[in-house]
Amino acid sequence: MISLNVNGKDYKVDVPGDTPLLWVLREELELTGTKFGCGIGECGSCTVHVDGKAERSCSVPVSDVAGKKITTIEGLPENHPVKRAWIEEQVVQCGYCQPGVMMQLASLLNQDPHSEAEKIVEEMDDVICRCGTYARMKRGIQTAIQIMRKEGK
Amino acid sequence: MAKSMTRRAFLKKSMATTGLTIAVSVTPFGFKLLNASGKGQTERFKPNVWFEITPDNNVSITIGASEMGQGTHTSLAMVIADELEADWSLVNIRQGGARKEFINPIMHSQIAVASSSVRGFYAPLRKAGAAGRAVLVKAAAATWKVPEKDCQASKGTVLHLKSNKSLTYGELCQKAAKLPLPKDPPLKKESDFRYMGKFIPRLDIPPKVNGKAVYGIDFKVKDMLYAVLDRPPAYGSKHISFDQKAAEAVKGVKKVFPIPQGIVVCAESLAAAWKGRDALKVKWDGGALPQMDNAYIEKSLIGGLDKPGSIAENKGDAKKALQNASKRVKSTYFVPFVAHTNMEPMNCAAHVRKDGCDIWAPTQAQTIPQMIASQITGLPPEKINIHTTYMGTGLGRRAAPDFIIEAVIIGKVMGKPVKVVWTREEDTRHDPFRAAVSHRIEAGLDSRGRLTAWSHKAVAGSIMKDIDPKGIKNGVDIMSLWGILDFPNSIENRITYDIPNFLVEFLISDLPIPVCPWRSVQNGPNAFAIESFVDELAHAAGKDPLEFRLEALKTNKRATRVLKAVAQMADWGKSLPKGQGRGIAQHACFGSYVAQVADITVNEKDGTFKVDRVFAAVDCGPAVNPFNIKTQIEGAITMALSTVLREEVMFSNGGVKSANFDDYSPIRITEVPDIEVQVVRSNDKIGGIGEPGVPPLAPAVGNAIFNATGARLRRIPMTPERVLEALKKA
After folding, report:
1. pLDDT, tens only, B418-467
2. Superfamily the domain A81-150 falls into
3. In Å, how far is B449's CA from the nearest CA of chain A?
4. From the CA of A44, how many Å to the nearest CA of chain B?
5. In the CATH hierarchy, which top-level class contains the domain B7-209?
6. CA B569, CA B576: separation in Å to the nearest integer?
7. How far apart are CA B364 and CA B344, in angstroms?
8. In CATH, what class is A2-75?
9. CB contact residues (below 8 A), chain B span 482-511, against chain A
10. C-beta separation of B475 from B310 below 8 A
């Protein structure tokens, strides 16, 4: 049994320790907002927070995160600047990659709230969106930063 | 706030008291409106019609077309809600099943392809909405015993202006349900549109942002099994042996069996299924063409240009006109295979029972899977329920039924709900790709530099082979030629230039590589050749590329309109600093016209270039959802640029070598240019919008490289090596 804390809730899961966190979230905990895109940490669709830091859950063995604080897209508050910016800028098309994209962005903004949008865009260069929403993501990044600054978050 | 399908709503079909229900039934001769209300007032709500108004004032709209990211659910709901004069905040949408009411009038099938959803349903849904408004007004007038003309529908209520009385649609719906529908209700004037043409936030975005939207891969039902396949590594490869016992010995594995698509491992969990698959240790033979790799493919397609083809069109006398031309230009173009790489790998769940079959799939098509599942299961089509989920892009890939067929086959064996899940590697290696194509074009100019003759030969795989094999006539596959030619009586996907002597020959490639539509189908690869070559002709004629095009378009007003619009946006003709260049291109497909200008900066030392800015002008006729049109064009430009920069599927040993995003790497955020889109005001026929942004991009970029450096790129992707090679020849 492995103890997990996901979105503030405690869980115990009976899976081999080398099971990727992604599949534990999706299959055991039924938190399907976190998506499977590649399985090798290349696309970013599976990104979650582990102790506040963005991690690609497809490449993290579940045993590594026992006892750590895990946050998924379902646990990112509805009023989080990134979620609000994504709705305000209508970034999303198919939406499949976006939970991971939003989680990575939320982590970057959390680590460095004073970061410039251009720098954040550079740091988002390792996510893949096949609909081609990048132009809107850039606006979303700017808007999320503005919301954070305005609200002093 | 208007609502969309969430996990909860999807899993728990809602109960509602019925009210006014209106359906549109599309027939080969047009469409008819049906009042589907009142079939038992207490009957459980069945989401099988276009829209329903219930006493709680809610307007539930059921849409048959798949939502794959193109925004069609919101756009179609806007069309109904506007003509219905509904209150948008009370509108909710549902995805419909497979039903004849949802057959797309353009496609004659329930399928979301060819950018056909909004343009196909625009007219019927406006009428359906207007019919609803008419009977609600009639019901109100009857209630108040006043003339209908004194009543007005406004945002979910009917008002009687003289007495200041009002009744909500919810209050009126049951009375309205008993009234006959007018056959031809009057439509609103454009100036009265409340939602169409305005900014309306997409209904599917909130559930996608909060992680609650249900995609195919997220679907789960009690006692569901999971299946994975070990698939052949090369085309035509057959299994020699596999270790069934070892796989079945893995904890949780229920059954191991071969089907034509591969060796199936069915288990209680996905992890167990994958573990079982690892234990299979399948031995495969070498397949149909073990020597096939990229060099083989390119040689085969380019070599095909020297073989006799079939004449697809022969207007005037191109050969003679070429002989008489003052100037002749001849070039060969090549576009390789590219993959769809939908972000959500293929998957499908199926539950085959004696009395029926349920299929949960991220699918663009409903009619075709229903028919095929009926054949596999032996059940009548009406017993096959297609539950379409959200999907991690469609791109044409999810119109192919392969991933559904295997799930139904496996479901039939297991007799329990089974979900088949593909990995990224399987998704890439077993993708029916965008068809690679070679082109040889020769054209003639008269003494004044006017285009008089065009002789075009193309070699590509057949798109229609798996879709409509009977549609291939005399060796000509029109869908493979889209962008150059279209089916008789259609000019949607036809070259826009008016060329007096025009010859097109086609040869179907015999390579064993499956192909299927990829955003804009073959309009993309074909427009790359056409619009790059037109640029070569402008250069040969000593004319400005914009002027040459406007002259060659002659009376094509819509293509002219977008070209002029984009030229104005981009300030065409302004001088650029050294190292920078700009290219122009235009193309029409699926009823819409798009012109683009690409501004680029080239580094002549290392062959790299950056696309700095793309301007796009689009004429799609009435613009239902202008913001969504812009974002679709942006997405199409981005995806097309991805194929210009890097995308090319790698093959070896008769199969696909490319596997995952580390060796097949789509475009990233830092590579995306500034994109400016103008939706040109147009009262012409409504066109599609998901795809037409793709075709002009690749030639616009190639033309920009030529403008900057004099180097002509006749092959994508335009890698630094190819740019350097072209620079040497310039």
Report:
1. 999 999 999 999 999 999 999 999 999 999 999 999 999 999 999 999 88
2. [2Fe-2S]-binding domain (1.10.150.120)
3. 39
4. 10
5. alpha beta
6. 16
7. 14
8. alpha beta
9. none
10. yes
